[in-house]
Design brief:
With 353 residues, the chain is of the alpha/beta class. It is built from 16 helices and ten strands. It has one domain: 2-enoyl-CoA Hydratase, Chain A, domain 1 (Alpha-Beta Complex). The chain is globular and about 60 Å long. It catalyses: 3-hydroxy-2-methylpropanoyl-CoA + H2O = 3-hydroxy-2-methylpropanoate + CoA + H(+).
């Protein structure tokens, strides 16, 4: 029997499986703060409940698990001078950390669109399942933002420079490439996904995965590793773009053209964030860094402008400030990583350190 944990999160149990269903299909299950809090409370309760052997997370509707946070709400908050978004991120990043350290199998059904915050509630889990319909992405640079929800932790640990490519371009990947990049574990055809989920109610997770998982259809990134690893090893975003444009592969040039449509500030901060994340030891440390970066981005012009152009007015013509990569200085980038001591709402410790 289902019970509603918030206006948009459904909780129920079937046998040994506890199920979370994000239930905002008209908004592609975009996350709100009550949804995040409902998930966090449910996981806290289920972790200590001996009747629960596995948690299964899915999205309502046919379009996807979750398109991310409710960026329309971010825009409204920012233009009104509010700060509620900072609290949302604080709760969301703590939820991401809880998922990563959850002591029971956490099975994420990454069917359809899984972007931004959707990656945060799935790719940190222990059993991550994609289908032929999966489109997994961290598309933040396209709205003047920087990959968060532990995204820089995940992308920093992808093979070679694949994570840098995905972080800067924001492009989605399908099932095989999500597995290659370490964002997913198993491929189950969408037609078998309901059966897979139902079998978890009374079957061992490893046995159910063995029965339902199949080799994923071929992806694209493996064939492009040569130019990706070479070009994205550049020391700056400008250097990366130069290498991409100079490379003979048309896909490299297309990647450069995509990057040049993104926020110059977000691009430079993203490159720094991914490379810093490689040196940080834990997800919690990376989330602390991401929270500082996110709070700084919220105070800047490009996030509001990017959401306006992509989602509100939908004119597809953001006016970034600064408008060119050369105008974003190292000092500008460094400010995004500066600690904001004594202000927990805008950069203080997430995890009590």
């Amino acid at each position: 029997m289902g019970r509603v944990a918030s206006d948009s999160v459904l909780l129920r149990t079937e046998g040994r499986a506890a199920r979370i269903t994000l239930d905002r299909p008209a908004a592609l299950n975009a996350l709100t703060r009550p949804m995040v809090r409902a998930m966090d409370a449910a996981l806290a309760a289920w972790e200590g409940d001996p009747a629960v052997g596995v948690v299964v997370v899915a999205g309502a509707g046919e379009r996807g698990l979750c398109a991310g946070g409710d960026i329309r709400a971010f825009h409204a908050d920012a233009v009104s001078g509010g700060r509620g978004t900072l609290g949302f991120w604080r709760d969301e990043y703590r939820l991401n950390a809880r998922i990563a350290r959850f002591r029971k199998p956490y099975v994420a059904l990454m069917d359809g669109i899984v972007m931004g915050g959707g990656v945060g509630i799935s790719a940190h889990g222990g059993v991550r399942v994609v289908t032929e319909r999966s489109a997994v992405a961290m598309p933040e640079t396209g709205i003047g933002f920087v990959p968060d929800v532990g995204g820089t932790y995940l992308l920093a640990r992808a093979p070679g420079e694949l994570g840098t490519h995905l972080a800067l371009t924001g492009l989605p990947v399908g099932a095989a490439d999500a597995v290659l990049c370490g964002l997913a574990d198993h491929y189950v055809p969408s037609a078998r996904l309901a059966g897979f989920a139902a079998a978890l109610a009374d079957g061992g997770v490893a046995d159910v995965v063995a029965r339902y998982a199949e080799p994923a259809p071929a992806g694209e990134l493996a064939a492009h590793r040569g130019w990706i690893d070479h070009c994205y090893a550049g020391g700056s975003v400008e250097g990366i773009v130069e290498r991409l444009l100079a490379h003979g592969d048309p896909a490299a040039k297309e990647a450069a053209r995509t990057i040049l449509t993104r926020s110059p500030t977000a691009l430079k901060v993203t490159l720094a964030a991914v490379r810093r994340a490689r040196e940080l030891g834990t997800l919690e440390q990376v989330l602390e860094q991401e929270y500082r970066v996110s709070c700084a981005a919220f105070a800047g012009p490009d996030l509001v402008e990017g959401i306006r152009a992509r989602v509100i007015d939908k004119d597809g013509a953001p006016r970034w400030s600064p408008a060119a990569l050369a105008e974003v200085s190292d000092a500008d980038v460094a400010r995004f990583f500066a600690r904001r001591d004594g202000n927990s709402a805008a950069g203080g410790a997430l995890f009590g350190r």
